[in-house]
Amino acid sequence: MPDRPAELKPQIHQGTPEFRRTNLALFSAGFATFALLYCVQPLMPVFARDFNVSAAQSSLSLSLTTGLLAPAMIVAGALSEARGRKSMMVGSLLASALLTISSALAPNWGIFLALRAIAGIAFAGLPAISMAYLSEEVHPGSIGLAMGLAIGGNGLGGMIGRLITALITDVLSWRYAMGGIGLLGVAASVIFWRTLPPSQHFVARPLRTGALMRSFWEQLRDARLIGLYAVGFLLMGSFVTTYNYVTYHLLDAPYRLSQTAVGFIFVVYLVGIFASAWIGARADRVGRRRMLSLMAALMLLGVALTIAGPLSLVVVGIATVTFGFFGGHSVASSWVGLEARHAKAQAAALYLFFYYVGSSVAGAVGGIFWGRWRWLGVVGFVVAMLVVALAIVRVFAPAAAATRAQAARDVG
């Protein structure tokens, strides 16, 4: 049965105890999601060495996971429309943590990838459903901050996950590192289960395949949404490609940093935590198109800085890319919930489908650019994606505004 009480309550506003509980729960879930998903990213050179695979093959430890996560989220989003939000999110998070612990015990590369693939499916129950939960339960005037804080949990999880795996790998091994991250995921699952308020505004809908396909088709033809899906694909693809191969870049000449030193580079995720909440809240006041364009431009500036010689400028460039990505994702993801007229979980699932397909496809293709042209090739690939993202924002936002104006006239 869906987790909906009999008495309907007002939407959650900023400053209330329910708002704080919701933020704590989703911050914890976002923390665990990014830690579990991206803990393999700084370990790719280690996998390449220990399993005797190439850089492109090593990137499958992440790309395969996100590649299966993308379509599985569409199914999970549809199921949540019939079965409810909270129970599916809790089960998804806990299963993902246990699969990460199992991955640490994998005896060979094939089994390791199989477990990461299953984990990709297990992850699907959280991201799209959490976006739908926020769009239903949180008041529109507070959703930018709430979504930003949830994404801030992603940033902290990504930072801690990368840092812990790098430190433990240097001291013990990557197996202990992934096992430790899995245990953190179990703890976050318990916090999420105990603190997230039950849904108050969820209405169960029977799961009918024909109606579901028509709903997806309508959303894929909606100019208000398709532009956001494309931007999510390009921003995430740019971000993951940068982080996948900057590890190789910093372990290579002229820097030749240790695994631990490279892990500390990821402390710049702190700026992403700040950006997601701050930019999300500002977008509620000054406009989403302006903020989204600014964040894509910041990512362009940041990746350009990484081709400079001094290590300090490379770190500043990575921090700038991180700020722009988390700010942009906060704006785009909250915009999807506001633009979707119905079936918000499906709209969120489609956004995250393209978002994670961008991670999977661009992250893997980036290995080809690294293999042929090293870091300059990776930077060129990322710059091309971000230029396209900026162009889409400029074309999409006026179209979305025109669509909303027409809808308002139709209602009137």
Question: Which key features would you list for this structure?
Answer:
412 residues; mainly alpha; Growth Hormone, Chain: A; 82% helix; globular; disordered N terminus
Characterization of the model:
- It is globular and about 60 Å long.
- Helix 1 packs antiparallel against helix 9 (174-195) and helix 14 (288-305) runs antiparallel to helix 15 (311-339).
- It is mainly alpha-helical and 412 residues long.
- It contains 16 helices and no strands.
- It has a single domain, classed as Growth Hormone, Chain: A (Up-down Bundle).
- The chain starts with 16 loop residues before the first helix and ends with a helix.
What is the chain-wise order of helices and strands?
A: HHHHHHHHHHHHHHHH
Q: Per CATH, which architecture?
A: Up-down Bundle
How large is the share of residues in beta strands? under 5%
Remind me, CATH topology?
Growth Hormone, Chain: A
CATH superfamily heading: MFS general substrate transporter like domains
What count of structural domains?
1
Question: Major β-sheet, in short?
Answer: none
Please, how many helices? 16
